[in-house]
Amino acid sequence: MQLTFKKKEDDFDPTNPFYLYVGYENDKGEVEYLWVAKKYSPGREITIEIPRTKNLYLVDAKRKYYSSAQQNRQVTIEKFVIGEETNAIDVFYIGGAIYTKAFYNEEDQYLIIKDNDINRYDRVIPNSYQKPVSSKKVSGWEHLVEVPGITVPFERETKTLEKKVDEEPPIQAESIQKAIQLTSERNKLLAVLYQPKVASASKLYKWFLIKNPEPKYPHGVLYYQFYLASADDYNKWLKKRGIPNDNVLVFLDSDGEKVFYDKFNIEKDEEDSRIMDEEYQKYFCSLSLARKLDKILGNPSSPLKEVEKVLYQTTDGYELNAYLFARERPDVKEKEGSHLTKKNLETHRYSSNLYRNRIAMYDLKLTPKQFLFQWKRLIDSHKEDKILDTDYARLLSKAENGRLFTAIFYSGSIPNRADLDAVAYQVKFYQAIEDYNEQQKKAELYGKIPSSKSYMENTLHKIASSGIVPIKEISEVYAQGVQKGVFSDNNYIDFLYKYDLSEAINIFEKYYNNLTSTETHIIVALDKAYTQNPSNNWHFFKKNFADRANNIAWSIYQAKISDKETIQKAILWVETALSLFPDDKYYEDTLEKLLEFKEKTNVN
């Protein structure tokens, strides 16, 4: 019988199969085993030949090689009924976790070998697939192959590691209070292991630290360190915080307050991915951030620098997701097509097994009202700034267009006057920000302040459409941005066209007159303007101008403005658009309507 190990369609390439063995029954009914890696060649499919067999045995020896706990150093043998008539089986190998599971498709005659977390790659094994008829763990398995230079059984490391454990005891604070103090100074979380029901907890903890070096948060912003709690620690600290007297893992923040706890047995830490998994690290740090948001933003008198710091941390790369734990979400109408829906939020929450233990984790109690109060308070404190505050400007660049609000509540933001003031600050110090970034570049530093003009413009549009701030005030900020080179004339005209037609007519007239002041031919005038500030392509630039001229003219018609000069300007602008695109039916319709209106109102 032929066994072929291969990848399935566009899936991951087969991982190095050094820990896989297959077994078959010989004529005497005894099981003989073959090491899969004996036929291994990187980048190629693995094909092995074995006698036909009624039962096929799949052996996972990864525990034997990598488990730190003595009782876990076993191989797992799974038995499948395949029938002696089977002459070939394809084995599709997916994933690379320490523990594997296999599923046999009898009809198509292939095995799928996956890691334990079957849903990890969004593949669900159908019910029609055959699971092993038996599965057992075996210690001291005699068929294990050791190949120097290729694979090293864990036992080879044991004496060295045991010696290291004996000679280098782990750094352990004198008490849980001292450990909290140290983590607070270093801006870390404290991962407390309390193991009252494990007799050898101290010894296993030493192994644990060697096998699990202190994990750092991906960008080095947050991370945590371990502490083995004693019975005295439990009575004086953990018990008061509602932690059960059981084998648990508890995460404490820099104030020593609980943000998460769950059952955890140090004897079985190999089966628990919560310690080293990067996503879980973000999860625990997000819980810590949630409590910090409550502590700082929930206090109306918190120092503004602390407010600024925690808000910056909230938007830092969107790595921390405090919204997962928010009790309150603003009751706003969900926009069609938006990903910020309650349904998606629940999907994010329950994609993690940790969230199912909701009672054991911290609840973010901050309300939108409290957040908006602190946001306004921070913005107001910088209104009279005479020089650029780089930290504050960096926060604003990350908080544009409601990103802060979304990061905390997973909802579209509620526009407010403070957002307008935030954009006004960035416009005011635009040149200072540019100069600062240039200095950073010359010094080969990485402290540039990101700038997104489109986000700023989107914020202005959002505020204007909400109607909470007079359009005149928003227009003043936009106009200052145009003057300083932050925004373009054209975008400003489009903004006014939507929210203030009278001002849009005035600004477009100035723009048009400026274009044609030195060149009477519109094509030459547009080409000169395009050359000075090229964007997209020439045809797009020309069409945008024509559309803008037509739209302003059409709006004048719709508003039934009967002023003689205004009607004549509208006719001139749409005729200019038609000179650029003579066959445009929309332009023709606008001109026709304007001429009819002019005749009816006797405008000469």
Outline: extended
Give the mean pLDDT. 80
Largest sheet: 5 strands, mixed
The helix/strand class is: alpha+beta
Strands of the widest sheet, in order across it, are 4-1-7-9-8
Spatial extent as radius of gyration? 34 Å
Low-pLDDT segments: 9-15, 115-125, 148-162, 215-222
Tally of separate helices: 21
Strand content: 5-15%
Which keywords apply here?
604 residues, alpha+beta, five-stranded mixed beta sheet, five-stranded antiparallel beta sheet, 14 strands
Topology:
Elements: E1 2-6, E2 20-25, E3 31-35, E4 46-49, E5 55-60, H1 62-66, E6 75-81, E7 88-93, E8 100-105, E9 110-115, E10 134-138, H2 155-167, H3 176-185, E11 189-194, H4 201-211, E12 224-229, H5 231-238, E13 248-252, E14 258-263, H6 278-297, H7 304-315, H8 342-350, H9 368-380, H10 390-399, H11 403-409, H12 417-428, H13 430-442, H14 453-466, H15 471-483, H16 489-499, H17 501-515, H18 522-532, H19 538-558, H20 564-580, H21 585-600
Parallel strand pairs: 1-7, 7-9, 11-12
Antiparallel strand pairs: 1-4, 2-3, 2-5, 5-6, 6-10, 8-9, 11-13, 13-14
